[in-house]
Design brief:
This protein is mainly β. The chain has no helices and eight strands. A four-stranded antiparallel sheet has the order 1-8-3-6, with no helix packed on it. The chain has a four-stranded antiparallel sheet with strand order 2-7-4-5, with no helix packed on it.
Length: 88
Amino acid sequence: MANYGSVTITDVATKILDANDVYRPVFLQIIGNQTVYLGDNDSVTTANGFPVVKHTDAIDGQLAPGQALWGICPSGQTEDIRYFSHVD
């Protein structure tokens, strides 16, 4: 089953994808020019999250079973991020 969409990330931790019970590929693309910091729960911050900047190609990765995906921007910034994930 495919899961895709767009989420606006703000300076408050925002859920991008829910946890699932299987490994699954995830493709992300930042639409604007801000940095989004990623983590697997709502405690993600700009200090502890994994920084991702805009690329011309989608970034691909994988989520483990039970792992969600969250994002946050620096204070006062927002960014749109598109995602695609697929589970057989």
